[in-house]
Amino acid sequence: MADMETNTDTAPGKVPSEGSEADVTADMDEDSGGGREAIAGGIMVGLTVLAALLLRWRSGPNFIDTWGSSLVHPAPHNSTWVHITQIRSTSFLVAGSILAAVVVIARDRWRALACLITPTLAVLLTEYFLKPVIARRYEQVLTFPSGSTTVVAAVAMAWIIAVPRWIRPVVVIIGVFVVGLECMAVVALQWHFPSDAIGGAVFGAGMVLLVDGLLHLAVGSARGRQASATPTPAVDAPSS
User: Which residue in 57, 78, 55, 73 sits closest to 198, CA to CA?
Assistant: First the structure.
């Protein structure tokens, strides 16, 4: 989402010089308005809430848990999996959010704001709203959605939308790999059902997209109202 106005100073037919504002604009994100991000994020968050309602009614293992457990061998005391889960530390959450905001703030300050605040917001909603309301338990601990995978997925999505488009595919691959490892770790350690891990990942990533999209929709709407309220200067008719 570019947060820069189109360059109107270039004369018709003139090729912008290297390093001009037009070049900078072309290097920015091609997304516009925030609609696609808001829709994608809304769907992801909505699916998590729908799953939460179903689990509120029936909290036991489901077909996703059966399938996921068949892929990940239980290893409740494996030190490697324990080290992997430490990715979701508070330091990772705070530092990852701040650095993602720093990466994008020069190109898009509203996206920087989304990257800065949304991962923490997603974790707070997970721990203090969704888990207590749903009350799904694994070994007497509230588990849906997984707070660990919420943290990692939210920070990963913040980085995915923060980096320039030319490097984004690489960041997507890294992000999916790290989130996948975190999901496997919490399942192998028997901290969560597989559906808890997937739910946290979907919710964390979806929240970042949703907030980013809504911020840009709000800013675009405000600019549109401001532009429509600005009187158009009168143009004198050419003399005959």
Answer: 55
For the chain, what is the largest distance between any 2 Cα atoms, rounded to a whole number of angstroms?
91
Cβ contact 159:175 at 8 Å: yes
Q: Mind listing the pLDDT tens digit of every residue in the chain (240 residues)?
A: 444 444 444 444 444 444 443 333 333 344 556 889 999 999 999 999 999 999 988 888 889 999 998 999 999 989 999 999 999 999 999 999 999 999 999 999 999 999 999 999 999 999 999 999 999 998 889 999 999 999 999 999 999 999 999 999 999 999 999 999 999 999 999 999 999 999 999 999 999 999 999 999 999 887 777 777 766 565 555 555
Beta-bridge mates of residue 142: 137
H-helix or E-strand spanning residue 181: helix 168-188
92 near 151, Cβ under 8 Å? yes
How many Å separate Cα 31 from the centre of its chain?
Answer: 15
Chain-centroid distance of CA 30 in Å reads 17
